[in-house]
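Something for you to look into today, if you have time. Could you write out one complete protein record for me, on any chain you like? The space below this message is yours for that.
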Amino acid sequence: MDLSVFITATGGVLQEAGDAAIISSWLSMEEVDAISAIRARVETSPEADVDRLDAALLTLTSTHFDPAARVQLAKFYAWFKIVELLRFEKFRGFPADIGEPFRTFGRN
């Protein structure tokens, strides 16, 4: 068994679980506190982590089972993209791996 394949696969699953935990923590906060946490995360994370969290947040926003949570996540996603715009000084588009309708707005 090649351990590098196992470690790579496990790392991806752990990153996804970590992203889900971050987003879930935002849902448990007061809205102003969650927006502050989003801002801190986007402003301080490496670009690859911002990209991964962007995809995770958009996916969860569109698939969450609770309609009220989807509305809250949509607000969070809007704030996420605003902070991202301010940090990178341009609109960077939507994640390329979330579905065909968004691909026309792919990353620059």
